[in-house]
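Contributing new records

If you add data, match the layout below exactly. Sequence lines come first and carry their own label; structure lines follow with theirs. Keep one chain per record. Anything else will be rejected by the validation script.
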Amino acid sequence: MTDDEIWSAIGDPTRRRMLDLLLTHGGGTATSLAQQLPVTRQAVAKHLGVLDRVGLVQGAQSGREKRYFVDDAQLARAAAQLSSVGAAWDARLQRIKRIAESIQRTQQD
């Protein structure tokens, strides 16, 4: 699994909402998630498969269904990457701002 695969999985708004619900409720099944989302149980199961493949959730058999839980370590890794990317872009934007201000001062002189 690559970072791009994780970001692709997280990039989908339905999957982000599913992660939120799983975190809020301490886990859930495809059926319980489908009751809270505007998609079918089958669609939820497919989304859970994507999240499972990239390691963001783990499933454990619970009767006839699987109960899914967020993998805290993998989610923390993804969050740390996002923070790092955000910091890098903040630094780039600050450099661009300083260059633009310098150009503006030069043109005013």
